[in-house]
Design goal:
By secondary structure, the chain is an alpha+beta fold. The protein is built from 4 helices and 9 strands. The protein is globular, with a radius of gyration of 30 Å.
Length: 216
Amino acid sequence: MYRPSFASLPLALLCVLFAGCRKNEIVTYRLVKDPAPASSSAAPSPTTMPAASANAAADKANMANTAVTTASGPGLAWDAPASWSAGPERPMRKATFLIAGEAGAPGAELAITAFPGDVGGNLANVNRWRQQLSLSPITEAELRGALQHLDVGALHVDLIKLVGPATPPAVPQSVLGALVPYAGSTWFFKLTGTDAIVAREQPAFLAFLRTLRPAN
């Protein structure tokens, strides 16, 4: 195919062509972005789980891959140990308590949540906690042997202690959890931290649970 050569064009014509190109050439770049939300002020979905530091997580934690809304009916009240400090408000939580470690060691966190119904039952909820600790799921029969029961007034409390695996130099993480059905909802009290600090706080956690009562 014939291609004209610039060398064959008169010098004057080349000048005209180049001058015209410099004068009229407009280059437009278009960046393709993901579609923006319909409104920047739109409220987040109530089923969106928050994401987590280890806990925070968590608590995209807590009920991972399950669409739920928090309980809005009658609530529970409690008395927290003086050594626990109230944490900041967190999505989908009724309360958060922070527990200091020793000599700069990591502390622990108590997350309190409540959801309508049984949220799949004790087995599903315990297996979610096990998954967060990289533990394999257990069966209903194994769960019956792992749960402990505590009656606090008219409240029935199911307790479980879980310890995750550890590969040195990492230390094992632990969960001490309580599941409390109340007024058509299930309340979850989940203490998370290193196994050492959770073991240290276990008596305080049990004393805390014994203060549970219907809120006025």
